[in-house]
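Field: COMPLEX_INPUT
Field: COMPONENT_COUNT = two
Field: RESIDUE_TOTAL = 990
Field: MODE = joint
Values follow.
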Amino acid sequence: MTVAKEMRVVKDVTCPFCGVTCDDLEVHVEDGKIRDVKNACVLGKDTFLHHLEGLATPRIDGKPASIEACIEAAADILARAKYPLIYGLDSTELHAHRKAIELADLIGANIDHTSSVCHAPSLQAVQTVGIPSCTVGEVKNRADLVIFWGANPAEAHPRHPTRYSVTVKGMFTPQGRKDRTVIHIDVRRTPTSRMADTFIQIKPHSDYEVFSTLTALVNGHDLDVSEVGGVPLQEWRDLVEVMKGAKFGILYWGMGLTMTRGKYLNVVALLRLCQELNRFTKFLGAPLRGHGNVVGMAQVLTWQTGFPFAVNMSRGYPRFNPGEFSVADLLGRGEVDAALIIAADAIGNFPAKAAQHLKSIPLIAVDPKESETTKVAQVVIPAAQAAVAAEGVAYRMDHIPLPLKKVVDSPYPSDREILDRIIARVLAKRPDDGAKRAAPLPRG
Amino acid sequence: MASAIRIKGGRVYDPLHGLNGVVKDLCVEDGKIVQECHGAAEVIDATNLVILPGGVDIHTHIASPAVNAARGLRPEDHRLLCCPRKPGLRSGVGFTVPSTFTTGYLYAQLGYTTVMEAATPPIGTRHTHEELNDIPMVDKGCYLLMGNNEFILQYLKSGDLEKIKRYVAWLLHSLKGFGLKLVNPGGVEQWKYGKDVEGLDEKVNHFDVTPRQILQALTWVNEELGLPHSIHIHANRLGVPGNYQVTLETMRALEGKRVHMAHVQFHSYGGEDYVSFTSKAKEMADYINGHPNVTVDVGQVVFGDATTITADGPWQYRLHKLTKNKWYNLDVEVETGSGIVPYTYREKNYVNALQWAIGLETFLLIKDPWRVFLSTDHPNGGPFLYYPWIIKLLMDAEFRSQMLKRVHKRVLSHTMLPHLSREYSLYEIAIITRAGPARALGLRNKGHLGPGADADIAIYVDAKDKEEMFERAAYVLKDGKIVVRDGEVVESCPGRTIFAEVPGDDDLLTELRDKFEKYYTVEIGNFPIPLEDLPFHQAVPTGRPV
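Field: COMPLEX_OUTPUT
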């Protein structure tokens, strides 16, 4: 046993908080505790500095239990369930995603993740019309017009503007901010408006109408109205000229479009506008995504099942149907009979009706921290926090994967290990499920 | 004692060793083919069965950021093929862009055991490897996209070839790539401001270099590094009428150098537009026949649904405008672009039907089967599931002429197909799907059945209908284990990721660190992929080519 004080600095650390996925953090560790974090925004700093606060403890029915007993209890619930749900998975990493989907495949579960209640409409819009897009480095190197629509990166993605989109200098944007026109369009002023050259305030729920208007103007039609979305038509005409005149434009959107009236249709209209603009110049669009690694879960789910969210395995193969297999709908209709919530707080964030159903069924929570979900779960399994106490991979909002480091130790297993052990126990409870071997060949 | 298998009494087709249907026992031990089994072995009675090396696909798109984007883009495609979970196996979906596990199972059922992902952007290669890790049953590798890399363009502008070589080596080493891929060299860089290049001598915006210079520099680098596979080229102007000239010019620019021209069908078009669209397969084949430095894969078109996925961004935009189908585009910082457009090839569409004919002409006019390989550029020309149908077209002239009667009438007067009576033999099929691609890839343990080869073996029931024969292998052995029986996967195996063993070059790091800071958005320390991320892997030595 060594008693010497351990001090070290871990460089190039990837932050798990949001989809900007900064990978330049410097984390100072002293005796297994994080003392300081350099380069991070306030949100990222918080994630690392408070990693030891509010930790969950292993328990069954509110009573302390060993991790092993918790895993056994979780496997019991899941092996017995007829129509289970696996949900969460934003605040974890690629290998845990893999294992969660494997478990869903094994028990015929519904599997969904936090996209379902944030940018799922964006995913549906892409499925409808596609998307002209790029990685954030293209914006850094080339964009001379950046539009934020229904989004507030100044508060939700604090380093996006400085690293990728507004002030940053790149290959063909040597003067950074001076080389870019920045426009903010939203229903109200936010700190993002202060970064912008122009702020356009539109009426709530008028986004679809405004996108359609802009597309018509881009296509050379004029409209017989004086204002659209509470803004004079002339302002939209001017905006179209700015868009067509840019060398490289990008339109970033946020949940202001996906979670308001029109939902995915708003984004369809936005994407059509971006596609049309490519007749005149380079014009791209991208969602400002990511609480945690929600983009990563959509990636892994897509390569393993073909679908990005709301997947059902009850027939033995993956099916996709938002509205039927999406988490809020499954819970709202009271359909699932057991749930595993991992790396997300479902009860703390869901509508009352959905939360109510979760409380009424056998519920397993896997989380590093106590949450509204762990408070009521029948089985609570604490996990080592991904990107802090467990390594792995996380995806940036533009689908670029980055390695997550294990900065400090945790007494608890990682999400990946917990899921792996649950899978092993579920398999053990189904003796007929071992790979069926063909009859042995003759020997000679 | 390790597992041993004796395959008794089958007809063996092993072109590398000149075995053309010879009845012969094969012995397998410890995952390798051996001269003779030591002691007891399991026996596969292969009497009346046909034995080939496991299939090798030199050009397919099964794992990459763009492939996954295509999966996400096409929920309507997946319901055409649902694959339920079985004990020990995972569930999944098809059809043109299958999920990962299903991709492995489907390839194995056809008798394929080695497949090469033909395009991965360096910054997305971590993703590509994670997907490859989830593709079981086959050995696999990936080619890194280089033809529009802005660091390479910068070095080229300053004439520093040596630096390009060191940078390419660093990329291959850091990212565990197998080969170099050029896609529309120069054109994708132009696309970043919405343009393309017309020919080999057009200057690329901002960089003052031409596609010709890019082609020549990277081909030189490929040979200097002694990579197992030649440079792998998707030429400029894919899909565009009249593009055969730029394709010929590309090959002429690299005369005497090892070069692989990908999906050459898409680059063999004459005419000025899609109305005057004609076949130039003859001109292409004539050139290729006279130049043994060139290998090609065909990129055969198959009628029905396809998903076009390519790093060739400007072409995908053109296809979107042409078809009005949904359009995905992702430009990748510093490196490349990518685009996806769903597409349906129709028998009664003149252009599609002629594309189909051009592919077959290419197969039939190139005389040396060791230099023309079966591919559909999956899923661009159609899914790999149709390889057996293509084999039937090649082996059965009667079937070909029946098909020709079904397709658009105008094709008949624009193709040489009715005059090509050549029928591929089983031996030649074994070359274009096994021995040939393995040789072009420089994989000495693949594509043959001699002692020392990996025991990747496909066994088929010989049938008159060759499509039926190749659709479901009777047995497939992967590394000496039976993984497919009667066309069904009976056991999963992970397969290995194959990469070229290029020495690292850390002296370049200081300079690259500065470039990364200026132009990328990730730390250079987070760019390389550690070997531990590839749980099953195999390094292929580099050096002078075979």
